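This section describes the prediction task in plain terms. A model, or a person checking by hand, is given the sequence of a single protein chain and must write out its three-dimensional structure as a string of tokens. No templates, partner chains or ligands are provided. The sample shown here is typical of the held-out split.
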Amino acid sequence: MQNLFVVGLLAWIFPGAGHFIQKRTKRALLIGGAIWTMFIVGILSGGAYYPGFEFRDGQLLYLLNVFSKLGNGLGALISFLASVTPSPATPALATFEYGGRMVETAGLLNILAILDAIDIFLGRKR
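The expected answer:
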């Protein structure tokens, strides 16, 4: 791939894909494995529905959550679909907040991975 936009878009949609198409297989597997593992554990811990409040209740935390979840790419869609009809018992889980933070952290790590893939593409990094 010789297109910066395609590298960035693939890296965002599927964590590790931006490195994989640049023939950085080990780095792609490490990044993709870490981010997807963190995301899946977060979703299974009830993190898809975190925070369980609206924008008017806490704007900054809500916006951080939205920005972080969007960083997951395909995971953002999975997270949204999992949170459409949450179980009423989800906020009562002991892991509810931890799961939310894991989903957010996975998204932020993917944003860093996107920037890393772009830097490699531009030749700023090996």
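For orientation: The helical segments are 4-13, 17-20, 25-44, 59-70, 74-84, 96-122.
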